[in-house]
Write a structure and sequence with these properties.
The chain contains twelve helices and ten strands. By secondary structure, the chain is α/β, with parallel strands linked by helices. Helix 4 links the parallel strand 6 and strand 7. Helix 1 packs parallel to helix 2, helix 3 packs parallel to helix 4 and helix 9 runs antiparallel to helix 10. It is globular, with a radius of gyration of 18 Å. The termini are far apart.
Length: about 290
């Protein structure tokens, strides 16, 4: 159901407030540059520091901005509270999102049975395609592939996994099960696609949507020689964007490119001078920034 190149959108802020105009401009940039889908209010979108009302607003604006363009909207609706995740997913369905991205409930550290019941509660009550999201570095918990299989067997609206465990073995197991995988790590998109993954939910596409779309398209056609060239050309950038974590790196890059204020909400803050230098060098080396630029 979901394959190709999807962008995990940043949430732009200006003087501490959500910047709707900048957000709509960013979505327009994605549409014009071939992105197949957008993902508002995920990790990259700083979902933990948005109010409930802002979370709703960002999803609804994304749906309206993408309407009629063919670009899909996968709303970030995960939470460490099952009740809140259910509310967000129901809202996403109500306003017309094409799917929901649901991270494992973080901090609580539920058992596999708890994870199963969490997603069962939502999948059984909201008829919207759900992409599971395994990112133990953020959540402190990993969903076992046996739990994924159990959920996928029982609920036809659980349709894919955003795989951000960093494990090629985990990706391969899911692909062997026939369960669709989207990479959750730009640096691992090509390796994962060589194992059978069908695309990526990307951070880097906030600034290089054409390159990632071309790489994913090539990999889906089994043209790994072409895909590899794009991957290697951008590898330094992939690494630089995460040198001090996400979304700090991508917001620094977007600020340098005049695409974002670089503002984040505490406890996130701007990258260090050293990390900023690494990001700037990567942008210079891929030809996106002049060497003398600040």
């Amino acid at each position: 159901m979901f394959s190709g190149s999807y962008t995990a959108l940043v949430t732009p802020f200006r003087k501490g407030q959500f910047d709707r105009a900048a957000f709509e401009k960013q979505i327009d940039f994605q549409i014009k540059n071939g992105t197949q889908g957008i993902v508002p209010v995920g990790t990259t979108g700083e979902s933990p520091t948005l109010s409930h009302e802002e979370h709703h607003e960002v999803i609804e604006i994304a749906v309206k901005a993408a309407k009629g363009t063919g670009v899909r909207v996968i709303a970030g609706t995960g939470s460490n509270s099952t009740e809140e995740a259910l509310d967000l997913t129901a809202f996403a369905k109500r306003v017309g999102a094409d799917g929901a991205l649901m991270v494992n409930p973080y901090y609580n550290k539920p058992t596999q049975e708890g994870l199963y019941r969490h997603f069962k509660e939502i999948a059984s009550k909201v008829d919207l395609p759900i992409i599971l999201y395994n990112i133990p570095g953020r959540t402190g918990i990993t969903m076992a592939n046996t739990t994924v299989a159990r959920l996928a067997k029982e609920f036809k609206n659980i349709v894919a996994m955003k795989e951000a465990t960093g494990s090629c073995d985990s990706c391969a197991e899911l692909c062997a099960m026939g369960f669709p995988v989207l990479s959750g790590d730009d640096a691992l998109t090509l390796p994962f696609m060589s194992l059978g993954a069908v695309g990526v939910i990307s951070v880097a596409t906030n600034i290089i949507p054409k390159d990632i779309r071309q790489m994913v398209d090539a990999a889906l056609k089994n043209d790994f020689a072409s895909a590899r060239k794009i991957h290697l050309r951008n590898m330094e950038l992939f690494k630089a964007l995460f040198v001090e974590g996400n979304p700090m790196g991508i917001k620094a890059a977007m600020q340098m490119l005049g695409r974002d204020t670089g503002e984040m909400r505490l406890p996130l803050c701007e990258v260090s001078d050293g990390a900023r230098h690494i990001v700037r060098n990567a942008l210079v080396n891929v030809g996106m920034l002049q060497e003398h630029a600040a």
